[in-house]
Amino acid sequence: MADAGILLVEDEALIALYEEQTLVGAGYSVLKAHTGEQAVETVRDPARSTRIDLILMDIDLGRGMDGTEAAREILTTNRIPVLFLSGHTETEIVERTEKITSYGYVVKSAGPVVLLTSVKMALRLSHSEERFQSVLSQVREVAVQGYAADGTTNYWNAASELIYGYTAAEAVGEKLWDLIIPPDMVCEVREAVRDMIITEHPHAPETLTLLHKNGSPVRVRSSHSVTRNAAGEAELFCLDIPLDALPGIAERSS
Fold first, then answer.
1. Domain that holds residue 191
2. Closest-CA residue to 108 (of 56, 66, 71)
3. Are residues 125 and 216 in the same domain?
4. Helix, strand, or coil (residue 5)
């Protein structure tokens, strides 16, 4: 992926020039920002954001928004991998970045080989996640949904549309218990979701009776897994296998 586009966020001109030359020499195209605010503006510009496959983010950006703040702001609206750069090695700083993104942390003094290797690994990880999402979107027999810790739906595959009747556009952004959870199960499900995400330990697969959009019951065998997204946040993935004939599929398929 040596032709990938990188947004380099660095406030020190000489360091930015050195890092840019290193990246360009390895075949990457480079956009630059000198402040956190410029980085956010660049990512939110449609004409430039399509050219960004990875953000190489310095942490200390002088006055204004620092790198961690800029990364958080960017990741609220864009799922672009962020690889942090810093001259600091303090545990507190490293741990702070781990709570934001899972793509890594590079010490500036490590040299060009470490920098390029870290960039390559981050891009490969991002590519693997994209392929994973692509595979999930094509699964037709198993409903796959992703939920944040507060129950907000952030992933809803095609099989979920068929099994539960809600399109992805209708489901994403809505709370799990406002979609498919029977009223008498809401409190139990809230606690279960919070427990699984906090402990990162899923419950055993179980048979559940959930609700189709039209109000009909849908019996499924439900399994769960906990993973972390590009922002480093824990997410709950549910895989539901229907056990009965499904309401609404005939109408949707015709």
1. 139-253
2. 56
3. no
4. strand
